[in-house]
TrEMBL record:
Source organism (scientific name): Novosphingobium resinovorum
Protein name: Integrase
Top-rank lineage group of the source organism: Bacteria
GO molecular function terms attached to this record: DNA binding
InterPro entries: CB (IPR044068), DNA_brk_join_enz (IPR011010), Integrase-like_cat_sf (IPR013762), Integrase_catalytic (IPR002104), Integrase_recombinase_N (IPR010998), Integrase_SAM-like_N (IPR004107), Tyrosine_recombinase_XerCD (IPR050090)
Segments forming domain Core-binding (CB): 8-89
Gene3D superfamilies named among the record's database cross-references: 1.10.150.130, Intergrase catalytic core
Keywords for the protein's UniProt record, in alphabetical order: DNA integration, DNA recombination, DNA-binding, Plasmid
UniProt similarity note: Belongs to the 'phage' integrase family.
Domain Tyr recombinase per the UniProt entry, residue ranges: 106-285
Amino acid sequence: MTVSINTAPISPLRQRMQHDMMMRGLGPHTQQDYVRHVKRLAAFLGRPPDTATEEDLRRFQLMQHESGVRPSTINGTVSALRFLYNVTLRRRDLARALVVTRIVPRLPEVLSVEEAARLLQSAPGMKYKAALGVAYGAGLRVSEVAHLKVDDIDSTRMLIRVEQGKGGKDRNAMLSPQLLELLRMWWREGHKRGVLIAHGWLFPGQNVTDPISTRQLHRAVQEAAEVAGIRKRVSPHTLRHSFATHLLEQDVDIRVIQVLLGHSKLETTALYTKVSTRTIHAVSSPLDQLMALMEGKAPTGSADAG
C-alpha cells in the first residue's frame, strides 16, 4: 500500500510567524493553536491572510459569532491574529480591528468521588484507564496527559514532571501510590503489547512514535461516561475540575491546589470554592434560623444573654 506523505512547502509567512513565536518563547501548544487559527482565516478569505483588509476581518469575526463559535475560541483566534498582524506583519491597524468577546463565567461541572470511580472503571481499556487516572489523580490538563513521556514519571520522588504546560511552563504534579500502581499496570500491559518503548510516549497513539491525541481522550471519557450512566457533560477537563474540588473538600490549602494545578493566579483556583459541596454545606440557611424561632427554639449558634 502506498502511503501519501504531505511534502507541501511551508509558506514564507507561516515560517516567519513560527520564527517570531519561537523567539518570543511561546510554547509548542500555543504555536500550534496560533497556526491553526491563522489557517482558518486563510480558508475563510480564500487567499493569504497578509492580504486581508479591516472589512475582511470584520466579516470573519461576524461569521464566527453567527456560526455559534464559543467565546473562548473567538478570543483565542483574536490572540493568534493579533500576534500575526502586530508582530509578524507589523500591521497594527489590522490588529486593532480584532475584537475580543465577553465570556460569561460558568461553574465547572464536577463529578462526585463515586462518579469518578465509576468513570475510571468504565474506561475503554487499560491505556485509557491510566490516562484518565492521571487527569483525575494528578489534575493534569488533557494536553499535558497526552504529551507525558515514560521518563516523566518519577517513582523515587513520587512526582510527575509536566514539561511545557500551559504558558510554556514546567512544573511537578503529585504522584500518589494508587496512581503509580495504575501506571505500572499500564506499563506492564503496554510493554507486553510492544507499544511502550524506553524514553517514549507514556500514552502513544496509533503509531508508537506519536502521542495519543486529545480527541481520542475526549472520546474515551464520553464513552466511559455513557457506560457508567453519568448524565453530566463530561470531558477530560471535568476530571481536573473534580481533582481540585475534591482536594478543597479535604481541607487542602487552596494555595497548594493552585501550585498543583499550575495556575498563575489564585483567583482562578478560587473558582472551585463555588462548587465545593463542603463549603456550601458548612453554611446554615437563614430559613433554618427562622424556623427555629417560629418553633420557639434557640437559633443555632446563639448564646443566652447574661
